[in-house]
């Protein structure tokens, strides 16, 4: 009978009771829920390389649990994690509220800063001075049991002179910086070196140091070492320019098929004025066209020539004097079409090929052609024509192509420009053999084909009025001054056009810009980003993400200064 009841219960379940329904069941469920633990669960996931590593970690967890209890099941995962983390933090200075091993009432490995102490004095300390401080306190502890404390300190720039005393009146005096020959502090000299190397002015440094609360080196000390920094920078930049010239000559010779074919180097030059108006100083820089490094420079002031507009010519004369002294010949000289330099090269250096910058020559092509491409309706057919309305930008591109593919021949450059009109007439007999208009049998012009004689005459006059067409010999070398224009922008790191510098300081800052440029120009890049710009839809070049700059030239300057100081001890 009992077996039959059990079998029936297993098959059909327990017989329903009155208490299983209604209020009785509801009350019973509520009491059960109140007794249940309302714990919050948390998931901790980890990743290992193999199944064995996972088993090993679980085994270590079980062994750690056995250290806390006789059975693993009596210790929850939350309990073991809390114990392990507290143990690790207490032994590695991560739990400031608990006393660590070796911690005393006065020493704490992890030191919290109370709100009231956040404005305390700060100083810089050198590694050797820190070791000396530890050694001094240790030596004191060998013969005295009393604890030393800071009695007083005096600030000298970024250095502090500390006086430590104990209750037995033992005194330890120590500086937070070692001293150089002559008694100067190493820390202060290193900070001054950083100021001079970074291009900061003293007023900028003073504000930074004052508001940071790290002490301020007096202006007298700043100017005391200025001459020394100017001298070592001048020596360093001369070596850098000389090495850059050797690299340029060597690279040019290697590109020649025969050593006898070498005629000289190619340089590009430009002038940068120190002020926006009536500049007292001007920097005239020449870069090697193949290495893009500074191979010559000249700083021209009002003392050399009171007229700022003549500074570039005066600087170019200095450049050629310097290159002649070093035995370097110039084959091609590119610049941004300074007429005085054009005349100077033709009269004084006829063997040098004068080359004007292609960008300056073509930047106004679209603007000049716009006069014949658009205008008021009543002037249509007189000063402009509708068939030319879509050609100003493409003709500018055509002029670039004409310069680039003239093979250094003025006649071929002019012939390429003359071919603009036949090309837009859909006559391609004189176009380049590799051009799409000749290689593609299905080529269809994207621009309106010229048919009207008035439009042809207007375009012919506009093309022949271009400076490139008038003086093709000045542009057939296809030289651009992009890099020297970039150097002028890089100079702004060290030169501020709003600030008046002394003669020495101005030359030093120019030298710093050259050292920085010669070391970091054309450095490697990590990637290139290509973006579409609505303002320049025809631009195809990407933006290079360059590797960080190096500062070996700064370390070299500091080494030269230290050599001077230790040579005079």
UniProtKB/TrEMBL annotation:
Chain intervals for the UniProt region annotation (Disordered): 1-36
Matches recorded under InterPro entries: Mutator_transp_dom
Domain Mutator-like transposase stretches: 147-303, 312-435
The name this protein goes by in its record: Mutator-like transposase domain-containing protein
